[in-house]
Amino acid sequence: MSIGSTPLRFRVTIDPDRCMNCGRCIENCSYGVYRKEGDSIRINSRNCVACHRCLAFCPRDAIEIEEKPGDYRSHPVWTREIREAVFNQAKTGRIISGGMGNALPWPIIFDRLVLDACQVTNPSIDPLREPMELRTYIGKKPSSLSIRERPGKDVELLTKLTPNLQIETPIMIGHMSYGAISLPAQQAMARAVHRIGTFMGTGEGGLHQSLYPYQKNMIVQVASGRFGVDIDYLERGAAIEIKIGQGAKPGIGGHLPGEKVCADVACTRMIPEGSDAISPAPHHDIYSIEDLKQLVHGLKEATEWKKPVFVKIAAVHNTAAIAAGIARSGADAVVIDGFRGGTGSAPVVFRDHVGIPIEAAVASVDAKLRSQGIRNEVSIIASGGIRQSADVAKIICLGADAVYIGTSALVAMGCRVCGTCNRGMCAWGIATQKPELTKRLDPETNAVQVENLIHGWTLELGELMGAAGINSIESLRGNRDRLRGYMLDEGLLNVLDVKTVGA
Amino acid sequence: MCGIIGVIDRRRQCMDGTKIKEALASMDERGSGEGAGYVAYGIYPDYKDYYALHVFFDNIRENKAPLDNLLEKWGTIIHDEQIKTYEQPGLRKVHTPWRYFFRPDRGMMPKSTTPDEDIVTHIVMKVNSERNGALIFSSGKNLGVFKAAGWPEDVANFYRIQDYQGYLWLAHNRYPTNTAGWWGGAHPFNLLNWSVVHNGEITSYGTNRRYIESYGYKCTMYTDTEVVAYLVDLLVRKHGLSEKMAVRALAPPFWDEIDRMPAKEQELNRAIRLTYGPALMNGPFAICVANENSLVGFTDRIKLRPLVSGESGDRLFISSEEAAIRRIDPDVENITMPKAGEPVIGRVIA
Q1: How many CB contacts within 8 angstroms connect chain A with chain B?
Q2: Within a 13 Å sphere around the CA of B289, how many CA atoms are in the beta-carbon half?
Q3: Which CATH class is domain A10-94?
Q4: Domain B3-347, CATH
Q5: Which backbone phi and psi does B145 adopt, to 5 degrees?
Q6: Chain B: nearest CA to A330, how far in angstroms?
Q7: Could you give the CA distance from residue B200 to residue B175 in angstroms, rounded to a whole number?
């Protein structure tokens, strides 16, 4: 071994004065950090990923996890991560995978945008006393209405509207497939969205039978591997989403390793048990925008034009023009997934380096669609890096109709963002298919937590709107006048169409 | 703050500007002496078929010739003259107000179904966004806006509005927050035959502006009110909605109310909210909108600004204050306070 050991990423210690030797850490750690030797608990810190499962279940707060206890000689260019990536590839000669979202310290635009509030010249609105409307409709809208009014007769609406999804809060849960995450995790989120009156995506993993009771709140996905897709699946969903790309890995496909394809996953995806589920990089029936149009129409025709069809793309440099093409394809919504979007597994080089942030992508798409007079043709759903209610408010100001959350919903179920989803050993029972781990996740308890999270954000969003003197979400949407940029450069301010603080 | 008043005579019987000046001046408590204005319909019977363009020139020598050239490119100037003004001690004349009577050449807008209006709108948007020392602040037929930075009585005396005879008047007493002291920022705002006076602040302005600009309008006055004139023009003239339905789009019922409506009504109101969501106006406001046939008053959805209406014979009054209405007609009847979002509409019948 010419490279040898590298410094520990984490050092785990147990305070012997506090430890009662109960062994819960050993039971809970799925990565093999702890083992019993005689009467004492031994620790192998090198296996630790800092998922904090042990820490969460230690009854005596005896465990401490220290990050980077020993480091390399510091260097601004040759960072620890860069050096370790080189070691890794020198040893393996492979593409390095990772989980979760972008792990590079890019500046976060959301954190350089501030929201507005009313003072004196107009009153802020108290959501506890006055109506506060967050209801949102996702789908195509007519550009104008034709209304016939005749004396003595009812007012007649002559324009026919196409189906829209009605959501009571502009927060939905994005697509995380059964396979990438566990069934109890999907069940928990399905219960939550069902109770709140919002929607979640199935991901490209089919719709498991146990989710049928919640199908009215599920958006089914058609991706390049077409896993789990048949007419029954399409008909069960409230809407259909064509996935072209994903913010965590724009331009490439997906790969669910065979070891995660247990009998149940295999059945739901309609593939042989234990086989790798490979989604190609492009859809092989979509090599151009007009092919997309055919698929949109095909899916609508198959479901008798009763369901909205969404198209999801990764946020890339030319997103605005691509979205304008999608708006003309007959699709009802475009989902834009920013470069912070999460993933079960992606090559780190893509996760960290390809794509653009959601804030800039949404701003440019909204502006492009307006400039072409087709903003009403599609709703804009923003995803990838929505961490809190303030992010929701800001992205709606920048032009989004609604958001998809992903990682935040997982965190609500216990995920500690350790970024090890790709290994399938998630100690929280979320990103794994191992029965002994998935059974740790109780759908009901976690449904309540996810519901609480969305409910809390919704309350905060209402308060933010009320403070800005707005009582209907339509008036926040695209209202960039209610944002100011703090220490953003002029080029970016122009893209966001936002003034600087003080202006 | 700001005080507004509007009056329409349903049989087009004209009133001169004396009383409207007094009514507006009675609301000086609502203003700050930095802006006031009037619009009167029916004042140019001899030129009623031509667009009456009122323009503020920074100076005549430099800024007038380019506008003359532009107008002659797009049509014919039938007549033009300086608008008569009378020096007032409390009002500094920073612009020279001018009026043109203009006939657009329809052949210049062959694709349009409403070429006259589209040409005039184009000219107004172009001139006002270029800011070359000329600002067109009134562009309808047989009507005119008279406004400046000052107290209502000074502005009225500056133009001697008592010399104008109109069957429909709007007036505005301004307490500016956005653009103090700028003549262009005074109300009424006008485009074609639409005029607007507004008390309040539109918190949805950023959304409304971007929506209306995607239809080719340009917001150039640095203030939220002009967007109302353009929205009404879009909804009523271009999309063919009635005034009532246009107000429904701008200040729609809450979802709670819509959910309780009978199915057909629910479908209509949902369609209005879905289609015209970006036109919904939020924030505190009371607004009067007029065209040559009607006067409409309405408030925001939770009525954060006052609005009262009253009637007297053929006349309908709408104002921020009952006292202002009584200043015009002490015997006014049917004083009512319209509910939030519910329009008061007066139409001519002759």
Answers
A1: 119
A2: 27
A3: alpha beta
A4: 3.60.20.10
A5: -95, 140
A6: 17
A7: 10
Residue B288 annotated to the active site? no
A interface with B, Cβ–Cβ below 8 Å: 118, 121-123, 125, 130-131, 133, 135, 137, 141-147, 149, 154-155, 157, 159, 161, 164, 370-371, 373, 375-376, 397, 468-472, 474-482
Specify the pTM: 0.94
The H or E element that residue B116 is part of is helix B115-130
Q: What ipTM describes this predicted complex?
A: 0.92
| Distance of alpha carbon B350 from alpha carbon B347, whole angstroms | 9
Give the tens place of pLDDT for each residue, A122-178.
899 999 999 999 999 999 999 999 999 998 888 999 999 999 999 999 999 999 999
Phi-psi region of A4 (alpha: psi -120 to 50; beta: other; left: phi over 0): left
CATH architecture for residues A137-144+153-500: Alpha-Beta Barrel (3.20)
Banded model confidence at residue B272, pLDDT cuts 50, 70, 90: very high
How close does chain A come to B334, measured CA to CA in Å?
Answer: 24
The token pair that represents A402 in the structure block: 């609604």
Interface with B, mutate which of A160, A398, A481 (most B CBs under 10 A): A481
Q: What is the H or E stretch that residue A407 is in?
A: helix A407-412
- Number of neighbouring beta carbons within 10 Å of residue A2: 5
Domain extent listing, chain A: 10-94, 137-144+153-500
- Name the residue among A123, A373, A482 with its Cβ closest to that of B214: A373
